[in-house]
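Project outcomes to date are best conveyed with an example. Our students and postdoctoral researchers have been running inverse folding experiments weekly, and each run begins with a structure described purely in tokens. The record below, which covers 143 residues, was selected by the lab manager from last quarter's runs and is presented without edits.
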């Protein structure tokens, strides 16, 4: 399954040589979603593996990027206890600022990303609770 997400490149880490045959490079995207006029911010830690580790080099922290990725999961058992590990494996990155201009369609503008670098409690507007609702929990009925 291939997915895409657009966000601000918040942090990029150095490549880690995990074993003789495996290397990875992690990075964090700041993702903003507008729900009922409020902006909610999430942070997604993703990874590049093997020969893909260098594709992030052309981007700098703060750049708006579009990332194509797969969800990978493993079952891990130790001392009779089962754990599950989920990884977001990126395989393509491109600049999201070079996207074509909006040609008059009805889509709203992209959410505004947090530019102050500080902890905003999970969102980038003041006075709101640290709450990230799912679309199912939003009451948008007019009555």
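After processing, the design step wrote out the following sequence:
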């Amino acid at each position: 399954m291939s997915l895409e997400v657009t966000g601000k490149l918040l942090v990029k880490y150095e490549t880690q040589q995990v074993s003789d045959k495996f290397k990875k490079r992690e990075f964090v995207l700041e993702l903003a979603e507008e729900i009922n006029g409020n902006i909610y911010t999430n942070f997604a830690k993703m990874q590049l593996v093997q020969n893909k580790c260098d594709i992030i080099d052309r981007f700098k922290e703060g750049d708006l990027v579009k990332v194509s990725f797969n969800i990978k999961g493993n079952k891990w058992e130790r001392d009779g206890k089962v754990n599950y590990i989920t990884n977001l494996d990126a395989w393509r990155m491109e600049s999201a600022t070079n996207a074509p201009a909006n040609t008059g369609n009805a889509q709203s503008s992209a959410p505004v990303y947090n530019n102050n670098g500080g902890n905003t409690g999970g969102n980038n507007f003041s006075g709101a609770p640290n709450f990230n609702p799912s679309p199912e929990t939003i009451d948008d009925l007019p009555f």
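The two ends are 39 Å apart (CA to CA). The beta strands are 2-12, 16-19, 22-35, 38-49, 64-78, 81-95. The training component of this project remains on track.
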